[in-house]
Amino acid sequence: MNTIEVNEHLYTIKLNLTGMTEYGVDFGELTSGTIPPPPEGARFDAAFEGRASGPRLNGTVAGVDYLRVRGDGRMELHIHETISTTDGLNIDAQGDGVGIPRPEGGIIDIRVNMTLFTSSEEYKWVNLLPVWGAGIVNLVEGTVEVTCYSA
Hints:
Layout: E1 9-22, H1 27-32, E2 42-53, E3 59-69, E4 75-85, E5 90-101, E6 107-117, E7 130-138, E8 143-150
Antiparallel strand pairs: 1-2, 1-8, 2-3, 3-4, 4-5, 5-6, 6-7, 7-8
């Protein structure tokens, strides 16, 4: 494996939201501004799947974001996903981050910090790298796009 530079683009994920588990608050009403966040916040499990593509990683992605919306509206992300590479190997990816809804609604800006792990010889270089990413969630389309870089 070649040396990976700080802030090197590793991959971009393009995901579709495939399911939402709600815990007493309607996600659509909350994110549209129809209802405010409750003082104690709200919890959701957002399932997703899609693709990872880039200079270092390519494959499919599936997982769940165990998301909490705070009383002030900021979203705390707790991500668990599997990247299944095009050559049939799996990489565990876990991370946290924040989501900040835009005032006009429908779009959430997200920032993530990820840790990747595998025992596969071809990809164990991921075990050494902290990964950061920036992207958006488009609630109207039900899509997520995040570009991930080495830290």
